[in-house]
Amino acid sequence: MKMTHLNDDQVMQKLKNQHYSAQSTYKAYFSTWLGGVTTNPSLMVLPMDDHLVHRGDGVFEAIKVVNHNIYLLRPHIDRLFYSAEQIGIQSPLSKADLIQVICETLKISQSENAVLRLFLSRGPGLYSTNPADSVGAQIYLCVTELKPLPQEKFEKGVRIGRSQIPVKNDWLAKIKTCNYLPNVMMKKESVERGLDFTVAFDDQGFVAESSTENIFIHTKENKLVHPGFDRILKGTTMSRLFDLVEERKLLPVLRGVKIEENDLLQAQGLFMAGTTLDILPVCEYEGKKVPISPMAKVFLEMIREDQKMATSLNLDYRKG
Ligand SMILES: Cc1ncc(COP(=O)(O)O)c(C=O)c1O
Predict the structure, then answer these.
(1) Is the CB of 62 inside a 6 Å radius of any atom of ligand 1?
(2) Which pTM does this prediction carry?
(3) Same structural domain, 40 and 139
């Protein structure tokens, strides 16, 4: 390859000429590094020496926006700050300033519905593991298009299997770090097996979670149960659903249950929960049919209604 030594204008031109289809789903990008917002996807870049890039040293959130309403904004921001605190990253923006940045970036994007990709990184500075080498933590935020799953998945259910990827230890599982290799491998194995999701089990054989989704059960005894948050990520979607079910006294709920593989096969219904997918019923586990819970439609409608409501957990960004 003949090497070209590019001048600054050529670098800028090269960046601007980088086009690929995913870019059409990127609506606006803010970073503390740029100190502003760009809507040009080719320029939504960050420094190569940010420890986020070469060590996975950062934390993140995916947040849904429905009808201008930033859904479960407060729990997401709280979890971002909890994750950052666990690995000793101090946000360059306070929670209030970050929320304002999110609202302003959304206004520029003019999106009614979106998924926010929010990152809090260790920041740029040397290619080391040493956090002290960073010049300071950074925020990167991209407003992306919301692409809902096909309706069929919500009606007919999804197919899941048992993961072969070693489960993360409790401490790491509770932090939403950008160090997501086991989660990536879980997604890879599910794609290769032609499944929608795989589910990890902890070293004692109890159900943990999926790549970027929680799993919960509607038991034969008519209870709603999920694994304990001492071993998995505290999902905002599943937590909200359990709160709503409890408030409305639909079913008794138990948070923090040790669930065995056999419990999955005996259940009245299994569900996957997560920000981008909402609440999905499961129709098959490891090649065995499992019933779709009679509550599947109710749960989905409850969450979808909740996404549009003005509650203390949500924020209409036009008012933010
Ligand atoms: C490992 C893991 N578990 C569960 C979830 C679901 O969490 P939430 O409902 O807040 O999206 C996620 C979401 O990103 C995740 O990464």
Answers:
(1) yes
(2) 0.97
(3) yes
Between the CA of 275 and the centroid of ligand 1 the distance, in Å, is 7
CATH code assigned at 212? 3.20.10.10
- Assess contact for 119 and 141: CB atoms under 8 A: yes
Q: How many other C-beta atoms can be found within 10 angstroms of the C-beta atom of residue 11?
A: 10
| Measured distance CA(232)–CA(154) in Å, rounded | 24
54 part of a folded domain = yes
Domain boundary among 144, 163, 188: 144
Judge if the beta carbon of residue 213 lies within 6 A of ligand 1. yes
Q: For atom 4 of ligand 1, which residue has the closest CA?
A: 213
Q: Does pLDDT of 140 surpass 90?
A: yes
Phi, psi (deg, nearest 5) at residue 227? -65, 160
Give the closest residue (by CA) to ligand 1 atom 7: 235
Q: Which residues pair with 140 in a beta bridge?
A: 31, 119
The amino acid sitting at 293 is S
Residue 118 Cα to ligand 1 middle (Å): 14
CA of 10 to the centre of ligand 1 (A): 41
Residue 57 sits in which domain range?
Answer: 13-144
**Which ligand 1 atom is the nearest neighbour of the CA of 238?**
9
What pLDDT, in 10s, does the model give residues 149-208?
A: 999 999 999 999 999 999 999 999 999 999 999 999 999 999 999 999 999 999 999 999
72 found inside a domain: yes
Residue type, 192: E
- Asked if residue 220 and residue 96 are part of one domain, the reply reads no
- In the reported structure, the alpha carbon of residue 231 is separated from the centroid of ligand 1 by a whole-number distance in angstroms of 13
Beta strands per DSSP E along 16-107? 26-31, 36-38, 58-66, 69-70
Whether 275 is in a domain gets the answer yes
Answer with the one of 120, 144, 168 that is the final residue of a domain.
Answer: 144
Distance 2 CA to ligand 1 centre (A): 45
